[in-house]
Every structure is written in C-alpha cells, then in structure tokens.
Amino acid sequence: MFPALPSPRSTGARTARTSPAALAGAVAAGAALVLTTGCGILAPGQNGDMPDDINVTSPLMQEGQPLPAAYTCEGASEGASADGGEQEAQEASSPPLSWSGLPDEAGSIALVVDDPQVAQVFWVVYDLDPQLVELRQNSVPADAKQGQNSQGVAEYGAPCPEPEASYEYRFTVYALANPLDLPEGASLDAALDAIADQAVARGSLVTTNAG
User: Fold this and answer.
1) Relative to the CA of 100, which of 36, 60, 62, 63 has its CA 20 to 30 Å away?
2) Residues forming beta bridges with residue 202, ordered by sequence position
3) pTM strictly above 0.85
C-alpha cells in the first residue's frame, strides 16, 4: 500500500532558450560534476561498492526508449493569452517515477536526472522520505528539496536535444544513509558531493532521444 504523499509543489520547469552565459555555466557545472564525483556517482555499474538494486520505473517512460516530448523542451508550447495579446511560454513537465528495492538502512532518497555523455544535470531532488515510492508528474513533495541543475536553477530543466544528435537521459534514484544537511537550492557540486557521501544503493531508468 502506498504511503500518503505530502502536499506536492510544482517542479516549475521552464523552457526559455539557453543564453550563452547560461550555456557556459552549464559547461562549468558539467566539469564540476566530473571532478566532484569522479567516474562514477552518476554511473551505475562503475562503482563496485555501490549496489544497483533499486528498480526505477515510470508509467509514461520505458527503458531504452525515447524520452516523451512532454518532458523535453518540445513539451512546452506557446499559446495566446486569454485577451488575445502576447503569447506566454508554457512549462514542460517533469515525468512521474516509481521505485522499489530500497535497502532497509535507507534514511533518505535522492534523485538525479542527467545526460552522462555531456555531463549535464537536469534535475536534483533530495531529502525524499525513504517511505516514498513515487514522484508524481510535475511535482515534488513539500518536504523534499531541489538542488541546482547545470543551468544553476533549482528545478526540473527540460532537456533540449539538438536535431539529429543522440543523447541518453538517466533518472537515477539513490538510497542515502541519512538526509542531506543542505538547504533548498544547494549548488550542484555541493548536492552531488553530499549524495556521493551518503549513497548506499542506486538504480536508474535510462531513456534516449528520438534524434
């Protein structure tokens, strides 16, 4: 039986075009990701001491299949305002996820969504209740926290793949020994370091893009 979910809040994913400054920041954050996590906190199977026992699934995504457009920047559409005036950019949704197989010693859960090929992180969520078994679409529990992604924003940053290119999008759930001693909006390197220190098990759902 699923535990009661705390009141969710929107993930607030925006799909504004990336500015050159933000892109440079994303590259720097990607480099920091590699430096602070070595070969592997975000790469299941590369760390022999880290069990890959957590089973991550989604009712709307499948392993090895393209990430649905609703969860990329293509999922954001522009529509006319109610008075027929300026158009307003709509938000892309974060996908629903479910997991099972957490170890008994888990004191907290974290989620990292990334593209390992370009070392870019789209979403970091931590301090999820270890009794929780799912995240609903476009929301996180009120008592959880979101860290900054590679663009320096504490929200789900919908991937924007280039046409004809190939990408992987990993949704990795980490069982942590304890909650992280971090505030809402913690920097990417601080959040990844803390997850690396506390992680005791993990599991990933890996999708692609249709390019």
Assistant:
1) 36
2) 174
3) no
